[in-house]
Design goal:
The structure is a single chain. This protein is α/β, with parallel strands linked by helices and 592 residues long. Helices cover 35% and strands 14% of the residues. It has 19 helices and 16 strands. The strands form 4 sheets. The protein has a 6-stranded parallel beta sheet with strand order 3-2-1-4-5-6. It has a 6-stranded mixed beta sheet with strand order 7-8-9-10-12-11, with helices on both faces. It has a two-stranded antiparallel ribbon with strand order 13-14. α6 packs across α8 and α10 packs across α12. The protein starts with a helix and ends in a 12-residue tail after the last helix.
């Protein structure tokens, strides 16, 4: 089957397979459905059709009603006699996705992870060809080629030549060449998008089909003109023309790329209303618009963020402005309402491909910080701890650790003590870019190495112990039940819910351990006698991080992050600080 017969028969092939319940191979581009995505889907489907006995159908990842918004796609496909009636669109898949008895495999091009609204098809993905940052988990059950190049069509063209030595269709050759030229800005090194493979594939296509190298700019200019032909589109349609949607936790973000200048976009009379409407229609919190225009032959790019949520806007703006990779600069000549944030790109080589993963990462940080703020507001113990200087390491841990001079000021008459801390475990989070509202970003001492040291020290006090079979080190006592203990994380440390969590860690905040700590700390304050955890009236609330298990009988057990312990250990800490540094003499005025 040649390419023309293939493309003109796809809609009929799809409809017949839906009626018969036959297995289909679906090739799906990304939701922006730009030219690279559309042509990649068509070309990869034709490649697979030559290699498989099953029917292969390319699907454009946009509703049929929105196809006319993709002006450059309509232009290039119409040029080679491919019309809307020949094509299958994402809403045509509804029958396959919802019906029973339909079997299909999914091949992703120009993206490697499905959006939330299409996640129901994730278990059907059998191959991926993409040129974006990898976000998908990989298995040995699928074919994957992810490589950073200017155009996904370059990768698919390369697959044609690797497997068959030819593209074998002049029409498809024109489509692939035009798309690569459009995505790589006519192979311009100055634009920062083109890679050696893009150049090599254009040259191979020109050689195979005897295409004139001198018309590259003409092809590129015609595609660019079609892409920028948006005068007939409303602002809402313009924002939908090349958009992607993603969600971090419960925060939905729409990111639209516009090939118009920021001045032209802001002059549209319905601009603010359209921004608000597209957020509401998609239940989204943030709209990000990337404008690309030109002045005097030079490309000028702007970043616009619109959200009605003030705290979220402030937090995201702070992280964006502090990121050196994005390298944005404020604009002094543009004034909008407080719901808008406008920045100018200093590096015009940055595109949505780099901005999108950055925004995802920023939202993960903000989401995690919001979680910590909630934990603090829900816990009296945590709120009380924030009023103190950062807690020192209890005397039960005597391994040498570095000195840290805190600039955090305490309320009241308490003078900050020298602070000692141990290395942060994998499930805590220390990031200088976090907001100041988080307080001191001290790490936790509940990591594998420190827990192991503590268990060794604990077991020196008892004859009952077990050993690590690989090292012979004492790990835990038989009397300390893993079901009757809670790992302790200080109130001023930060647990990252996105990092790997060590569920298997033993605890040193069990009833047995608390009792031993009380026995050890009371002599420092001159007290004597036997104590039990219930005797300590200050420890009414212990803190249990989200990855720990709290036994039901531990509600009366005290934590050792409390004012009582802080005061009783002050003399010990000051003595240790003076031995490490002569500059801590001023700390001797601390009131116990």
């Amino acid at each position: 089957m040649d390419f023309q017969d293939f493309i003109h028969s796809r809609r009929d092939t799809f409809a017949q397979a839906c009626l018969d319940g036959a297995c289909l191979e679906i090739v799906l581009g990304n939701e922006s459905c730009d030219l690279d995505s559309a042509v990649s889907a068509i070309a990869y489907a034709f490649l697979l059709q030559r290699e498989k006995e099953l029917s292969v159908v390319p699907v454009l990842n946009v509703p049929r009603a929105d196809y006319t918004l993709k002006t450059e796609v309509v232009f290039l496909l119409n040029k080679y006699a491919i019309t809307q009636s020949d094509l299958v669109f994402i809403d045509d898949l509804r029958t396959l996705r919802q019906g029973e008895g339909h079997t299909f495999n999914l091949h992703l091009v120009d993206h490697n992870v499905l959006t939330d609204s299409q996640a129901d098809m994730a278990n059907r993905v059998v191959s991926i060809v993409d040129h974006h940052h990898r976000d998908c988990p990989l298995t040995d059950k699928m074919f994957v080629r992810i490589e950073t190049v200017g155009s996904c069509c370059s990768l698919i063209t390369d697959l044609f030549y690797e497997r068959h030595g030819t593209v074998d269709s002049q029409t498809l050759g024109h489509l692939l060449r035009g798309t690569i030229l459009g995505d790589s800005i006519c192979l311009s090194p100055e634009a920062g998008k083109v890679k050696p493979l893009d150049v090599a594939m254009v040259e191979k296509l020109e050689e195979e089909f005897n295409l004139d190298i001198s018309d590259r700019h003409q092809v590129f200019n015609s595609i660019s003109a079609a892409k920028q032909d948006v005068a007939a589109l409303s602002t809402e349609q313009l924002l939908k023309k090349d958009k992607k949607t993603f969600t971090v936790s419960s925060t939905c973000v729409i990111m639209s790329s516009l090939h118009v200048s920021i001045q032209a976009f802001l002059k549209r009379q319905d601009m603010i209303g359209a921004c608000s409407k597209i957020l509401t229609a998609n239940s989204a919190s943030i709209l990000i618009v990337l404008c690309s225009g030109s002045k005097g032959g030079a490309t000028i790019k702007h970043f616009i963020m619109y959200t009605r949520e003030g705290p979220l806007r402030a937090a995201l703006t702070e992280l964006i402005d502090s990121d050196l990779d994005l390298n944005f600069t404020p604009t002094q000549d543009i004034s909008l309402s407080e719901n808008f944030v406008v920045r100018k790109f200093l590096n015009i080589e940055i595109s949505r491909k780099q901005v999108l993963p950055k925004i995802k990462g920023f939202l993960q940080v903000i989401t995690a910080s919001d979680m910590m703020t909630k934990l603090r507001s829900d816990s009296d113990q945590l709120t009380f701890s924030l009023e103190l200087s950062a807690p020192g390491t209890p005397s039960i841990m005597e391994s040498p650790v570095p000195e840290f001079n805190s600039s955090h000021e305490n309320s009241g008459n308490h003078t900050p003590n020298p602070i000692f801390y141990v290395e942060a475990p994998p499930n805590s989070y220390k990031d200088a870019s976090l907001l100041d509202t988080l307080g001191p970003h001290l790490p936790s001492f509940n990591n594998s190495e420190m827990v192991k040291r503590i268990m060794i020290k604990k077991n020196k006090l008892t004859s009952d112990h077990t050993e690590d079979p690989s090292t012979g080190d004492v790990l835990s006592s038989e009397g300390n039940s893993g079901h009757n203990s809670c790992p302790f994380t200080p109130a001023n440390s930060f647990v990252d819910r996105f990092a790997p969590i060590e569920h298997h860690l033993p605890s040193f905040n069990s009833r047995e351990m608390v009792s031993r700590m009380l026995q050890k700390k009371l002599p420092l304050a001159g007290d004597t006698g036997d104590v039990s955890p219930a005797d300590d009236v200050h420890g009414q609330h212990i803190f249990t991080p989200h990855n720990s298990e709290c036994g039901g009988d531990l509600h009366s057990s005290p934590a050792f992050d409390q004012l009582d312990l802080e005061h009783r250990l002050s003399s010990f800490k000051l003595q240790q600080a003076q031995e490490l540094s002569p500059h801590t003499e001023a700390s001797t005025n601390h009131t116990s």
